[in-house]
Design brief:
The chain is built from eleven helices and 18 strands. It is an alpha+beta fold. A hairpin with a 2-residue loop joins β15 and β16. α4 packs across α11, α6 packs antiparallel against α8 and α8 crosses α10.
Length: 397
């Protein structure tokens, strides 16, 4: 039996659509990829609905042409500010005559954990169970166990209602049904983290064009999520102002000549030139270094605890388009005094899928992997994933 899966990543600089088939025998196979420049989107938020809709339409059109079929539904990535998260606890009594925990008891405990005062301008995106306690003992899966009191610690993520509605309405106007909404830091974590890192404690930072998405994973489950309104475009803007370059040329020089390697690793202070503009290579790299160093410091300030070395002993995994800057790992290690590495999404099977084997497409690939795993979990339980709705349950276990 085949099931069609489509994901849509609407970012500040690009819109990426991936579609493919999930086959019970052959697994996932990518059939279409559509990438289009973003217009009308600032810091991952819809600024001009008409321009944004056309960018999304173009991305989906390219994926449709490659796949040979029309798209009518998709799993949508959510990012941008404001995103907030908290760890809540829900406790319930087990009242069945046999005192055995049932699946519905887990849902009831999660509902209690969710029963907090959410501001009217916020919508809950995810309620993610982190740990269960049965009669004071930590258990991995309490279903079928005997007990009297069940507690769950859950990570609750919410986003601004207006920004979520603007994004979803823009997509619905293209006659696309929204199957799922998934926070992109979770998708990025799904794509690039190892099981060992998730257990030990790790931070993944997806540094895109307009925002930096952050997820902290500890003990195999999500611990903290946030989104910074600072990313690659701020680096470009500093180059533009500092060197007196047009925006597009500043972006081109950043990608072509930008480096964070120390000065002794460079061959002197050469002059680099593009389109009749020449600048000092050292000046270019110093501007980039200063902004990226500041960004790493801002990421640390987003940590929920000051003793971050204990929270994330596995260090930092950097991904997103800015992770392609040479030397960014060394800067992260210097600032944090923790291990650091580049996160590259795994290769998917299918047409032109090697194109996605780049940190710039981590969130896009992560959305596909998230949807894939949830489909497998639903099939294992003999059920099916639930259709559209804001609240989503997700766990790394």
């Amino acid at each position: 039996m085949k099931k069609r899966i489509t994901v849509l990543d609407v970012g500040t600089t690009k819109v990426c659509t991936i579609t493919g088939n999930l086959d019970s025998i052959m697994g996932l196979r990518v059939l279409g990829i559509g990438i289009a420049p973003s217009h009308g989107i600032e810091k991952a938020l819809i600024a001009d609905a008409n321009k944004a809709k056309e960018s999304i339409r173009e991305s989906m059109r390219k994926a449709e042409m490659m796949a040979g079929y029309r798209l009518n539904s998709a799993c949508i990535g959510v990012t941008g500010q404001p995103i907030s998260s908290t760890n809540n606890k829900g406790t319930i009594a087990i009242t069945h005559s046999d005192q055995l925990v049932r699946q519905e008891d887990l849902k009831r405990a999660l509902d209690v954990a969710l029963n907090t005062q959410t501001p009217v301008n916020q919508k809950t995106l995810h309620v993610i169970p982190r740990a269960y306690t049965l009669d004071g003992e930590v258990v991995e899966n309490p279903v079928g166990m005997h007990g009297y009191e069940l507690s769950v610690e859950a990570h609750v993520i919410s986003g601004a209602t207006a920004s979520i509605e603007n994004r979803t309405q823009c997509i619905r106007n293209l006659n696309i049904e929204i199957e799922d909404l998934i926070l992109e830091p979770l998708a990025s974590a799904e794509a690039v983290l190892t099981e060992e890192e998730k257990q030990s404690g790790v931070l993944v930072a997806d540094i895109g064009g307009g925002t930096t998405s952050i997820a902290v994973i500890k003990d195999g489950s999500i611990y903290h999520t946030s989104v910074l309104p600072v990313a690659g475009q701020q680096v470009t803007r500093d180059i533009e102002i500092g060197l007196g370059l047009p925006t597009e040329l500043a972006e081109e020089m950043k990608k072509k000549y930008g480096s964070l390697l120390s000065s002794e690793d460079k061959e002197g202070d050469n002059t680099v030139a593009e389109d009749g503009h020449s600048v000092s290579h050292r000046d270019l790299c110093e501007i980039i270094h200063a902004r990226v160093e500041e960004l790493i410091q801002l990421i640390l300030l987003e940590m929920p605890r000051t003793d971050y070395s204990r929270l994330i002993p596995a260090g930092i995994v950097l991904t997103g388009g800015c992770a392609n800057l040479p030397g960014i790992v060394e800067v992260a290690q210097s600032v944090t005094h923790l291990p650091a590495r580049i996160g590259v999404p795994p290769a998917l099977v299918g047409v032109f899928s090697a194109l996605l084997n780049d940190p710039a497409y981590t969130a896009s690939v992560g959305l596909m992997l998230w949807k894939l795993r949830n489909e497998k979990q639903a099939n294992q339980k003999g059920g099916q994933t639930k259709p559209a709705g804001i609240r989503r349950f997700f766990t790394f276990r």
